[in-house]
Amino acid sequence: MATLSINGAIREVEVEPETPLLWVLREQLGLTGTKYGCGIAQCGACTVHIDGLAVRSCAVPVSSVTAEQKITTIEGLSPDGSHPVQKAWLALDVPQCGFCQCGMVMAAAALLKANPHPTDADIDAEITNICRCGTYNRVREAIKTAASGSQIGSAS
Amino acid sequence: MTVMENLSRRHFVVGSAAVAGGLTLGFRVPSADAATPPSPEVNAWVVVKPDETVVVRIARSEMGQGTLTGLAQMVAEELECDWAKVTTEYPTPGENVARNRVWKDFSTGGSSGIRRSHDYVRLGGATAREMLIAAAAQGWKVPPGECKAAKGVITHAATGRTTTFGKVASLATTMKVPDNIALKDPSTWTIIGKPLLRLDTADKLTGKQIYGMDINLPGMVNAAVRQCPVFGGKLVTFNAAAVEKMPGVLKVVQVNDSTVAVVANTWWRAKTALDALPITWDYGANVGVSSKTIAKDLAEGLEAKDAFIGSNIGDAPGTIKGAKNTVTATYAYGYQNHACMEAMNATALYTPDKLEVWVPTQNGEAALAVAAEASGLPVQKCDVYKVHLGGGFGRRGQEDYTRQAVLIAKTMPGVPVKLIWSREEDMLHGAYHPITQCKMTGVLDDEGNVKALHMRISGQSILAALRPQAMQGGKDAATFQGLNESGPEGAFTYKIDNLLIDHAMRNPPVPPGFWRGVNLNQNAAYVESFIDELAHAAKQDPLVFRRKLLAHSPKALNVLETVAKGIGWDTKPAPGIGRGIAQIMGFGSYVGAAAEVSVTDGKLKIHRIVAATDCGYVVNPAQVERQAEGSFVYGLGAVLYGECTIKGGRVEQTNFDTYNVLRMVGMPKVETFTVPSGGFWGGVGEPTIAVAGPAVLNAIFAATGKRYRTLPVFKHYDLQSV
Predict the structure, then answer these.
(1) What is the reported pTM?
(2) Which residue, B152, B180, B204, sits at the end of a domain?
C-alpha cells in the first residue's frame, strides 16, 4: 500500500513498492498524460513535479515517495490548460505528434518556476527531453514566450 | 469510461455484402458492395451537425506531420464552410471495406497524404457543397445556380434569403450526387495556402489526447512480449511456472515461433514477470553476423561486376577509363531505428464472432488485413479503430505488433488485451533504415567541368524484404530515389553527359524498413558530399560549381539559390565559420539546405540552417515550415548521432542511452523558405530531411578541411556535439 498526494488529492494504491511512479500514475490511477518513453530517465516523456521540481517518474520507485510530497502531473498543472506554459504552447502550435509534449510542458513549467527568465544556455541545460518530431525550436520559443508573460499572439 | 465511448462510438456492422477475393496482405483490402452509412452525412467526407459543426472525415493517419489539418483545409476550401466550426474524425478501415473503399487509400507514408489525395478530397468537399446548395434551393424553389455558399451560409442573392449548412444538411443527404464539378482555381483559395493552426493541439497539452498506449477498456489486461533478440532466432522453451505466481500475472503465452508474452493485470507487472521468465533461445544461423561482417560484404559489392542499373547515360565507364583527372571517394550510411517516442503497441478484443483492434497505425487497411488474418475471422467481422500516433516515421506502416496483439487476444476471448513493447523491444526489433556504402568516381576536364560520374551503391534493398512483388526483375527501383533519369517523383537534377548509377544488392539479415526520408537520405548524403568534393578538386566555389550542373533544372536551381541567399553565401563568413550547401529532388519536391557550422576543440556547433522547399502547391505554409525544421532533427540524428550496430546477430543499442539522438542543445536555428512554383503537388514530410546532413557535412569541410564519409560522424570520428 502506498499513500500519495497527487494533484491535490490523497490517493491510496495497492502496488508493489518497487513499481515506478510512472506506472502507478498510468495504471493504478488512470493518469495517462504522463508517458512511457524509455524507462531509464533518458527521454523525459514521464516528467512530473514532486514538490515543484521536475522528476522523471519512470525512475522513481513509488516506495521512495512520501505522502507529504506533493506530486503534480500534467492533468493537475492547471484545471483547464491555462498555465502560462500551456497557453504559450497552444499559441505557438508547438506539438507535432505530441507524445513527448506533456513531459516537455512539465519540464518547462518547473524550469520557469525555478528560473523565471532562462537564457538559451539555461534552456539547453535544463530541457533535455527527447522529441523525435523535432519541435525543439518551438519549445524554446514557447518557453521564452511564457517567461516574458507577453500578450501571446496567434500564428495565423 | 470516456475512452471506451470515444474510441468505439461507432461500432459499425458490415452489411451482408461479401468481400470478394482473398486478402493481399499489407497493402490492399478488396472492395465490398456499399452498405448503409454509419451516421448521417452529406457524403463520405462531410458530416454537418445541426449545431453547424462540420465533421471532415480523414482517411490518412495523423502522426505529427499535420496531414489531418491539411486534408481538412482542402475539404473545407471546396465546401465553403466556416473553418472555426471544423472538426475531424477517422472512418474505420472496416467501413472503407464495406463502402467500396469510398475513402480510397488509408496508407500514410512516402509524404503522400496530401499529394496523392488532394483531388478526390477536394472533390468530396465540392460535392457536399453542391448538395447543400441544392437542398437550400429546393426549399426556396429557386434554381441552385442562383445560390452561393460562403462560410457555411447559403445565400439566394436575388431575394436576399439565407440559410445555414446545419439547417439543410439533413435534406442535402437526399439530393442527387452531382457530377462534373469543377474544382476552385488555386488563385481563389482562401483556406488552402493559409498558415492555420493545427486542429489537434489542445488535448496534447493537458494529457487528454489518447494515444494507443493510453487505451483503457473495461476488463482490459496487459501484455509484454519478448522476441528472440537475434534476427532469425527461435524460441525453444520457457518456464512459465517460474513467474505464474508473481503479482498480477495471468498467463504466459507463446505468440509465435520466436516470441513469448506475459499477460498480467497491469503492464508493469507483465514486464516484471517477463524479465524474470527463464527463456531458452535457438539463436540460429545469424549469431556470427556483425557490423564488421556486413561492412565487408558491402565493400565487396562496391567492386562487384554485377549490379542493377538505375541510370545509364553516355559512357561513364569508358570516360573514366581514359581520363587523366579522376576523383574517387567511398561513403557509408548505417542502420537507424525509427525510435518513435511511443513504442509499438496495439490493443485487441477477440471473440469467436468479432475482432476489434485499437492501434496507432500508418496504414489502417494493412492493420485490418493483418488483424483479420491473425484472428482467422473473415474481414467483415473485424475492424480497426485508429488512434493518434506517438510518432510514425515509417515504422507504423508495418503491423508486426498488431499481429502479436491479436494472437495474444485470441487466447483470451472476450478480454481486451493491450500489448506494449518496451523501449528495449522496440530498439531490438525495428524496421531499420537500410545499410549501404557508396563509391563515387568522377572525371573532371581541364576547365573543372564534370565529364563523367559513376555512383556505385552497395547494400540493402527495402523492397526485397517488404514488397518483393514490387521488384523489377530483381531490381529495387526505390533504391534510386532522387537518382532517377527522369520522372516527377525523384529525378537526378544534375546534368552529366556520362552518368552511371548502379546498385550491387547486398541484403544482411537485419530487417529493413521505410525510415522517414527512406533512400533519399543516403543518396543525398553521397551525391551532395561528392559534388562538393568535385567542386573543391576543381578549385571552384561549391555553389558556382552546382549552378553549372543545374542549368537545365530551374526548380532545383531555384531552391539552391534561395538557400544560398538565405545563408548569405556571397558574404564572407565570420572567422571559424564554415558554410555548406546541398540540394536534391525527392517525394515530388525540390529541396535545398545551407548550413553554417564551427568546430572548436573537437566540438561541432551548427549555428544555423536555411531550408527551401518547392512542393508545387502549399496547403499550410506553417506546417510545411514545421516539417522542414522537424525533419532536420531526424536527418541530422542519422548523419551525426546515432547508429544501430550489430554484434552476435543482434542490435547492440537497446535504449536512448546508447542510441543517441539530437536534443535541444544540438538543435540549430532553422529558417525555412517555401518557394512553391505551382502546377504540381510534392510531399513535404520527408524530402528536406535528406539535405540537412550533407549541408552540414560540407560546412564541416569548409570549416576544418576534414571530410567525414562514414556516417554517423560522432560514432566514427573524433568529433562531438557541443
Answers:
(1) 0.94
(2) B204
